[in-house]
Specification:
6-stranded parallel sheet, 13 helices, 13 strands, alpha/beta, Rossmann fold
Length: about 350
């Protein structure tokens, strides 16, 4: 049985910064999510706040209310991923309250719990764990790239985006699960803290890995997954975007990870990187596809994040892009990813 966990968002559940919570609400193989702590949305269902889908995960105003409603809670997971990975100071009293209720803490931010004296002292008294997911690996556990990636004889597909916080991880998981329904052994390489929190078995935390070893850690995860699970296809969760100036990322997946195929995630109504005009305008989908082509990889499908779109607008964008790009374009949350699975089946047949 999976241990029971609550997720702390504390007023941010409806925001993009709560994408860790959003991923856990949609599904995790590592924990049983039994509640979300968020005073702004208390009394609602977390799934309905997220996307209108009831998921039987109640939102409570505080930890005590969650404990009263549910027994045997083992973990409290910090459900936000802020710019710079900073822990908001007003989260600390709630975390202290969890410890006093003998609940261990799980943190995916760059600000480590083990560096907060009050939490360390309380954890010692109440005998609970402080788990910092982004804590870097010891040097002796890191891998350097060594060309073993070229032994992998199944399609490797990178799920990358035109910007941050678009649903790359969610799209990746949806494709993996849809492949399983069709009898395809698809495996996913996680590259962020939420991927691990959702139960990922192969991967690493990209942005807490020493730069000289990112290529090697990526290769090691892919090769290990290929050798141990005998997959028909391997999916890699992307991070940030090729041209996001705050953290350009993706070339490592295409070059070091030898991902010759790409699922590209895009939000049609987003104009600027991270919605910040001072960071610059997003490039067009066609431009991004051409850039990926220059790396020697091919976009096999586009997945749309339909933020700020009505359903009619989303369908219009879908039809427009399919006609313009001559590629399958999917609305993953509304329609599923069946078209992408069909493309993957073709890739597998071509290799066979």
């Amino acid at each position: 049985m999976k241990p029971k966990a609550i997720v702390l968002t504390d007023g941010m559940l409806h925001q993009a910064d709560a994408k860790t919570a959003h991923g856990l609400i949609r599904g995790t193989d590592r924990y049983e999510i039994v509640a979300v702590i968020d005073g702004l949305h208390a009394g609602k269902d977390a799934g309905e706040v997220l996307d209108g889908t009831h998921r039987n995960i109640p939102v409570f105003a505080n930890v005590q209310d969650a404990i009263t409603a549910t027994s045997d809670i083992s973990y409290c997971i910090i459900g936000i991923a802020t710019i710079g990975g900073k822990l908001p100071p007003h989260f600390v009293p709630t975390l202290e309250s969890c410890i006093r209720q003998h609940i261990s803490l799980v943190n995916g931010l760059h600000d480590f719990l083990i560096n907060i004296p009050s939490l360390v002292a309380l954890s010692s008294v109440y005998k609970v764990q402080l788990i910092d997911v982004r804590k870097p690996k010891p040097r002796q556990d890191l891998h350097f790239w060594n060309a073993d990636i070229f032994k992998v004889d199944v399609p490797i597909i990178a799920v990358i985006g035109t910007d941050c916080a678009l649903g790359k991880r969610t799209t990746c998981r949806l494709v993996m699960k849809a492949c399983a329904v069709e009898g395809i052994n698809a495996q996913m390489i996680y590259t962020g803290q939420t991927g691990w929190l959702q139960g990922g078995q192969y991967g690493f935390i990209f942005d807490s890995t020493l730069n000289d070893f990112i290529s090697g850690e990526l290769e090691h995860a892919i090769v290990s997954c290929w050798a141990e699970t005998k997959p028909a296809v391997i999916l890699i969760e992307g991070q940030s975007a090729l041209r996001n100036p705050s953290g350009p990322c993706g070339s490592e997946l295409l070059v070091s990870g030898n991902a010759k195929n790409v699922i590209l995630v895009h939000a049609p109504k987003r104009k600027y990187y991270d919605d910040l005009p001072e960071w610059g305008s997003l490039h067009s989908l066609a431009s991004e596809i051409e850039l990926i082509k220059m790396y020697g990889s091919t976009v096999i499908a586009v997945a749309l994040n339909t933020e700020h779109c009505s359903m009619a607008e989303a369908l219009d964008f879908q039809q427009q892009y399919e006609a313009e790009l001559q590629l399958p374009v999917v609305l993953p949350l509304q329609q599923g990813v069946g078209k992408i699975v069909s493309s993957i089946q073709s890739l597998i047949k071509n290799i066979a």
